[in-house]
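Page 37, continued from 36.
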């Protein structure tokens, strides 16, 4: 009799595994299923769950019936068959199971152990594992390897993004000098007679005769003579000082005033000295010309330092500041770049080109840089700043309105993180907010993970998790 029972149980298990309707010894499967109803002796045995009486992949945590009205078969703790799903109590010993999810990633969950249509067990989701409520994307190890997912940590790096612009050489306005006379006169001889001629400070430019200067020299000679004849007092002192001051007002050099005072001579002409050294960039006087007080005779420029006026795009203006370094390459001397410094950002924007003029001061000791010479400028923005958090360009998915990076959480889990980006340089982006140094971000196959995230979000919107019975 015991052998007969063992044979019956084995035959019933084979029939259930086949998932169909079978006959054994002329007894229908329904009768065999009914033979598994709990008896009074089994009432004390703990029931794990209830399975479908036909062997279909369906289970229940409480007693229920199938569509044909047949009662689900109880499965006891000491007789769970090998083809049944794992015992939930084994996993619950350490962590609490929230629910079971579809092993193929479909938007289908269950509150109890379950199999899909292909007989695959649903995967338990433990407490704290899916706390992001679908935000975290999960991929299998095989899919990660096949898609070539790679990660790289966010690192501190000094960002020196190049800002490029074009410009032209201009003369330093602070080093310009105009030569004029403060009295009418006549040019009797020219010592500097060509434009572009270099001159030194105090070097004679021309010889001029001026009646007003002659009269002021005569007054000085008279005042000196009165002092020498013994005339003392406040009036004599004021006369002498007044005569000397009139000559100074006419810009007569001090050496001529001293010469007249000491010798008592009244020279008819004076060799007019250059007020500053540099290069004559404008000459408006010729020999024998009558000049009027205030006329511009020469314009002298000191070219030891020049300006480069660069047109910077409005979008790049935030990365250029006064004091920033710039490398200037002149098209006439492409192999000899010069380093300069930004001294001024002009206060207006050109409406035609949407650019802003930026002034760069560049040394020109040998005088090879000429006015209006073209130059290519590269600003070293942020060269004096400290390191910042950076990630590779490939780690960012930019939709135009939002930038997202996927952070690797381990065990095939990836979290989409909204980031705020700043400067870009050499394949890396500055992260202003959203990430911290050391966090692993996905650098390859980011679009695959993004597509997986969007697909799961869309499917979950149409198929919410089923509630527990």
């Amino acid at each position: 009799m015991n052998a007969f029972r063992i044979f019956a149980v084995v035959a019933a298990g084979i029939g259930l595994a086949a998932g169909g309707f079978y006959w054994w010894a002329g007894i229908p499967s329904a009768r065999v299923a009914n033979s598994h109803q709990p008896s009074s002796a089994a009432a004390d045995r703990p029931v794990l769950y209830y399975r479908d009486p036909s062997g279909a992949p369906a289970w229940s945590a409480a007693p229920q019936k199938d569509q044909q009205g047949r009662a689900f078969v109880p499965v006891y703790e000491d007789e769970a068959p090998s083809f049944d799903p794992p015992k939930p109590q084994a996993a619950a010993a350490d962590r609490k199971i929230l629910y079971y999810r579809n092993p193929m990633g479909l938007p289908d969950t269950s509150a109890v152990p379950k199999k899909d249509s292909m007989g695959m067990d649903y995967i338990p989701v433990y407490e704290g594992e899916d706390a992001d409520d679908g935000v975290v994307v999960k991929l299998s190890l095989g899919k990660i390897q096949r898609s070539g997912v790679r990660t790289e940590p966010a690192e501190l790096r000094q960002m020196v993004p190049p800002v490029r612009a074009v410009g032209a050489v201009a003369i330093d306005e602070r080093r310009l000098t105009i030569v004029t006379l403060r009295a009418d006169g006549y040019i009797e001889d020219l010592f500097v007679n060509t434009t572009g001629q270099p001159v030194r400070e105090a070097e004679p430019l021309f010889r001029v005769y001026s009646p007003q200067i002659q009269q002021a020299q005569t007054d000085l000679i008279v005042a000196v003579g009165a002092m020498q004849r013994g005339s003392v007092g406040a009036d004599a002192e004021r006369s002498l000082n007044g005569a000397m001051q009139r000559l100074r007002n006419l810009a007569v050099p001090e050496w001529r005033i001293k010469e007249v005072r000491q010798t008592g001579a009244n020279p008819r002409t004076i060799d007019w000295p250059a007020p500053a050294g540099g290069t004559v960039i404008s000459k408006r006087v010729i020999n024998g010309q009558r000049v009027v007080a205030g006329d511009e005779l020469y314009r002298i420029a000191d070219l030891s330092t020049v300006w480069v006026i660069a047109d910077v795009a409005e979008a790049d203006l935030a990365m250029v500041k006064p004091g920033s370094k710039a490398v200037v390459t002149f098209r006439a001397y492409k192999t000899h770049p010069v380093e300069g410094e930004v001294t001024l950002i002009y206060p207006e924007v050109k409406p035609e080109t949407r650019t802003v003029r930026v002034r760069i001061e560049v040394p020109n000791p040998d005088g090879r840089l000429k006015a209006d010479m073209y130059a290519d400028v590269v600003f070293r923005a942020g060269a004096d700043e400290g390191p910042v958090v950076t990630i590779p360009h490939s780690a960012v998915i930019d939709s135009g309105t939002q930038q997202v990076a996927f952070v690797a959480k381990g065990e095939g889990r990836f979290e989409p993180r909204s980031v705020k980006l700043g400067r870009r340089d050499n394949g890396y982006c500055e992260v202003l907010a959203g990430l911290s140094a050391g966090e692993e971000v996905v650098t390859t196959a980011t679009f695959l993970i993004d597509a997986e995230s969007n697909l799961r979000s869309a499917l979950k919107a149409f198929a919410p998790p089923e509630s527990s019975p």
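The first helix runs from residue 2 to 18. Flag for discussion at group meeting. The chain has five domains: 2-76, 88-126, 137-158+386-462, 163-172+302-380, 181-295.
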